[in-house]
Write a structure and sequence with these properties.
mainly alpha; two-stranded antiparallel sheet; about 0% strand; globular
Length: about 300
């Protein structure tokens, strides 16, 4: 493999990693800050892609981003409403919404399983036009998703340091304390899930437009990918302030996509990629535990070597 192939491989992983990092940041808000495991991620990601594709086909690329985020807000609102007002378990609420979103996504797409965006104006074609005749013209996709990721990281960092953001973080840590402080945990949960799902919808919209097609299965397995990326990011940059941790989510997304891209490059069968995702999740979850147990394992190994030497 020559240098050009390696650089191309890295750029592909970086572009996909930055695009999907918005979903990882969404999971960071709902799972790490709010302590809610939102399993509607797959359906919400597809919803954002579907709404963004339909609006882009009407000739409004910028409006497609806003519409995708709005659709994500609606999805998050329904999920939060089931949890806070109807007494549905958070895991079950996510599964219910994710199941229902399949039908809604098909309705948004007019009953079609695939939408072609090759001739439609998208945010990427818009940026490509703005960068025409410049040295950066060939990097319009990378610059677009990098700007989106940087903006979301900045907005999320600023929001979590506001009074409402601190209330959301406190709700995840101790809802009883929040309730005793005259803060409604139901309200903070609704706001947190609406914002996180807005990021997920935006991520789906960007991926669909970057691929120039929208498939009904575009979000399949996204919750697993986002969870793996989140855990990798926590392992790499899990200590520090909100900005450092949010940046770690982007790094984790890139690392996951790099491993995924290398697996594809090694001509691994497509049906094996789900297993690769599962293995990465297991390794990311087990890494802190294995790290804590390593000194004991090392002592046992050293003790065994000493026993053999004496014999």
């Amino acid at each position: 493999m020559d240098l050009a192939s390696v650089l191309g491989l890295g750029q592909t992983a970086l572009e996909l990693g930055l695009t999907c990092s918005l979903t990882v940041l969404a999971l960071f808000l709902s799972y790490s800050m709010l302590n809610v495991c939102d399993l509607s991620t797959d359906g919400c990601f597809t919803l954002g892609a579907a709404v963004g594709a339909v609006v882009a086909l009407t000739g409004h690329p910028l409006l497609s981003l806003v519409a995708a985020m709005g659709a994500g807000v609606c999805s998050g609102f329904v999920t939060a409403l089931l949890q806070t007002k109807m007494g549905v378990n958070s895991l079950l609420a996510g599964i219910i919404v994710n199941t229902g979103l399949y039908s809604i996504n098909m309705m948004v797409m007019g009953g079609a399983a695939l939408l072609n965006l090759k001739k439609a104006p998208t945010i990427f074609t818009l940026v490509k036009g703005l960068l025409a005749d410049t040295p950066l013209a060939g990097q319009y996709e990378l610059l677009t998703v990098a700007a989106a990721a940087a903006l979301v990281v900045a907005v999320l960092t600023a929001f979590l340091n506001t009074r409402l953001g601190l209330a959301i973080r406190a709700t995840g840590d101790n809802p009883d304390m929040v309730r005793s402080s005259s803060i409604n945990p139901a309200f903070t949960t609704i706001v947190g899930l609406c914002i996180s799902n807005a990021f997920t919808g935006l991520s789906g919209c960007l991926l669909g437009q970057m691929q120039k097609s929208m498939d009904i299965n575009i979000g399949q397995g996204m919750v697993t990918i986002a969870l793996a990326s989140l855990l990798i990011g926590n392992t790499i940059m899990g200590r520090g302030g909100i900005f450092t941790r949010a940046l770690g989510m982007v790094v984790g997304s890139f690392v996951f996509r790099l491993v995924y891209t290398i697996a594809l490059r090694l001509d691994m069968p497509g049906f094996m990629l789900k297993l690769v995702s599962s293995v990465i999740v297991v390794l990311a979850i087990s890494a802190p535990y294995l790290k804590s147990r390593w000194p004991e394992v090392q002592r046992r190994l050293d003790h065994g070597k000493e026993g053999k030497t004496v014999c």
